[in-house]
Design a protein that fits this description.
This protein is an alpha/beta fold and 312 residues long. The chain has helices spanning 14-25, 59-70, 135-138, 154-163, 183-190, 285-311; strands at residues 3-10, 30-33, 75-78, 83-87, 93-97, 101-109, 113-115, 146-150, 169-173, 195-198, 201-208, 212-219, 225-229, 232-235, 239-241, 271-273. The model has no long low-confidence stretch (mean pLDDT 95). The protein binds NADP nicotinamide-adenine-dinucleotide phosphate. Residues 50, 150-156, 158, 175-176, 180, 202, 236-239, 283-284 line the site of NADP nicotinamide-adenine-dinucleotide phosphate.
Length: 312
Amino acid sequence: MDKTFDTIILGGGPAGMSAAIYSARGLCETAIVDTCTLGGQPSNYMEIDNYPGMMKLGGFDLAEKFEKHMDMYKVSKFLMQEIEYIDLRSEIKVVKTKEHTLSAKTLIIATGARPIHLNVEGEEKFAGRGVSYCAVCDGGFFKDKVAAVVGGGNSALEEAMYLTKFAKKIYLIHRRDEFRADKVIQERLKSNDKIEVIYNSTVEKIQGDEVVKSIILKNVKTGENSLLEVDGVFPYIGIHPNSELFSGQLEQDAKGFIMTDNTMNTSVPGVFAVGDVRNTPLRQVITAVSDGAVAAVYAGKYMEAAVVKQNV
Ligand code: NAP
């Protein structure tokens, strides 16, 4: 065993870094573990304009500010770690990565979520050759090209608008005739004349040669198929929680999101879940950082209560 911490935080996005700041600032021995570098999903957002006090900031810049803030405190970082297993059964929780065996009195799960795939023919084949799940990473490849964005939520609308910085035309394909995105985002979309919305349609197939050339759309009202020539496809049809490591160990909802109470405690005492991986009613950076703060404070209270119990 490498070391026993007070708190291990799994995941270095806004929720995880906020938890780390609160935990280390509260003088708990804190470790943060991530399969990648720090930053999480916002690192891929073009712009964040609903984080109070920041007005308008690139997602990457905000993530960098969180990391700098975290670095003011003593937080042990274990990045680019391949996690082999997590054991939540005993009082001391164990996180085994390929290189380390870490243990802690409390665990805060901030593993976030990943994009759901369309699961249509051609999606896997053309991944990285026209199919992308990250407009910020790949938008530059679509200069003066035509791309399709799929979905009707905040991500689809925001990323469609972002892509118009490069692309000459964006088709926004939505399976209904009403968006679920916030009204303010819908209003912004209306004033973007590079975006054409195709309602009541789903993508049935992605085709091309070396790269994407076209997609087959199905009108869900008429059942008719049509061909649309595009150079790229950006599916933004929702997210799936990164919670598989905890299956069978923690209570989850039908979609795999980890159930918590309002102190972020999961079904296992001393194990907390924060941000997009939990069953939260709102998935934003502001709610993720709030979750992180609540979890770190209640992890501290859990450890204090355990000490009191020992001394009785
Ligand atoms: P989302 O809100 O769940 O929206 C997913 C969209 O994809 C919905 O419009 C849905 O259609 C559509 N969809 C789902 N499955 C589909 C399929 N198989 N084929 C075609 N379309 C499909 O997901 P999201 O936009 O990725 O956002 C995830 C979370 O992050 C949300 O809570 C969102 O509010 C939050 N977020 C917030 C911001 C912000 O505040 N600025 C930015 C990005 C994301 P239906 O509408 O018909 O169900």
